[in-house]
Specification:
Chain lengths: 111, 114
């Protein structure tokens, strides 16, 4: 099966700075990589995803990059705001139904 | 409401008892997932249903776990002879079609085994 590792486990940034969260995966057949945001006590929310036929995708202040050769993908948040504070999870899938999740990154944006 | 609904929201039970967790997905969503989230951990895949196809049960941790989805809608996850390590938040999610990442999660059922 797939093994997804996520780093760092915790991340603190000053408001306005950028935050980067990195994930690696083990199964070279994985081709779909969603990212989730989970605020304290709330349900996970799908915020962005990328498929293996593209190397980068942007949505306003959020971007994801994918390096298939190295089997890693990253989430970039620019101009961070306090409301970006949450736990972020990456995931990888190669079957269309088994999404394997990383262990999460707790992001704190300091005002 | 139009979201994924799970019940109960909290369940406390004694070790050895059976529990049943319910998920009501968004109407029309053909894909339904069950995940387990332990404290401070990521989401662990349990089972996936797609329409009327046979479910992908490969994530179920033991034969004490089973799930069904009746009529392509409501799903029930059953844990028999519960153990303390079963304590976790059980999350259900649905997506409109196969191949999409779990789009809409429920609030989960927090299961505590005493």
């Amino acid at each position: 099966g797939e093994n997804v590792e996520q780093h760092p486990s915790t991340l603190s940034v000053q408001e306005g700075d950028s935050a980067v969260i990195k994930c690696t995966y083990s199964d070279s057949a994985s081709n779909y990589f969603p990212w989730y945001k989970q605020e304290l006590g709330k349900r996970p929310q799908l915020i962005i995803d990328i498929r293996s036929n593209v190397g980068e995708k942007k949505d306003q202040r959020i971007a994801v990059t994918l390096n298939k050769t190295a089997k890693h993908f990253s989430l970039h948040i620019t101009e961070t705001q306090p409301e970006d504070s949450a736990v972020y999870f990456c995931a990888a899938d190669n079957t269309g139904n088994q999404f394997y999740f990383g262990t999460g990154t707790s992001l704190t944006v300091i005002p | 409401g139009a979201g994924v609904s799970q019940s109960p929201s909290n369940k406390v039970t004694e070790k050895g008892k059976d529990v049943e967790l319910r998920c009501d997905p968004i109407s029309g969503h053909t894909a339904l997932y069950w995940y387990r989230q332990s404290l401070g951990q990521g989401l662990e895949f349990l089972i996936y249903f797609q329409g009327n196809s046979a479910p992908d049960k490969s994530g179920l941790p033991s034969d004490r776990f089973s799930a069904e989805r009746t009529g392509g809608s409501v799903s029930t996850l059953t844990i028999q002879r519960t153990q303390q390590e079963d304590s976790a938040v059980y999350l259900c999610a649905s997506s409109l079609v196969r191949g999409q990442a779990p789009q809409h999660f429920g609030d989960g059922t927090r299961l505590s085994i005493l």
